[in-house]
Amino acid sequence: MSVEKRVIKKYPNRRLYDTATSSYITLGDVKQLVLDQVDIQVVDAKTQADITRSVLLQIILDEENGTMPMFSYEVLTQFIRFYGQAMQGMMGPFLERNLQVFSQLQQKMQEQTRALYGENAMLNPNIWSDLMKFQGPNMQNMMSNYMEQSTNLFLDMQNRMQEQTRQLFSGFGFNPYAAPGSQEKGPDKKDEPPKS
């Protein structure tokens, strides 16, 4: 059963209108809806086009311009370089899955904090800060190990796909790895001198 999304209309004057409350809201209010786990859809009031992604990206841009940006220069340039690449279609699901794992890890830590310190522990910044000082390095270690394993699995999958492609096309006398017009056998075959 699909959950009905909360529709927000964006007017040409750049104002956002929440159809659920029949009132104008700010980008900060949209951010709060996302933080409150409300499923939203932002539509252009004139064209009815779905512009949710661009509004969410605007919120991220505003956050990145703040005092504690999440993405480094290296991460942002890597994102840009993935556009147009053959692996672009796999990048989104890869990031999505890793964010889900990170979110599950965060939820588990919050549950453990509540079990140790009670229901109001999340409201006490000192307790949360102390826990992060103690658990921060362990959590980073765990995430690094997970990312390394994910990378190794991904590279292994990529190698298997290349091998299967090579085997598939070898039966047809076609080499997908050879340069157009060449008679090479593949990237792993060495050039052999012509036989006299």
Automatic annotation (TrEMBL):
Residues 185-196 have a biased composition (Basic and acidic residues). Transmembrane segments: none annotated. Pfam families: PHB_acc, PHB_acc_N. GO terms for biological process: regulation of DNA-templated transcription. Residues 7-65 form the PHA accumulation regulator DNA-binding N-terminal domain. InterPro entries: PHA_DNA-bd_N (IPR012909), PHA_reg_PhaR (IPR010134), PHB_accumulat (IPR007897). Residues 71-110, 123-162 form the PHB accumulation regulatory domain. Residues 176-196 are annotated as: Disordered. NCBIfam families: PHA_reg_PhaR (TIGR01848). This is Polyhydroxyalkanoate synthesis repressor PhaR. It comes from Gulbenkiania indica. The lineage of its organism: Bacteria, Pseudomonadati, Pseudomonadota, Betaproteobacteria, Neisseriales.
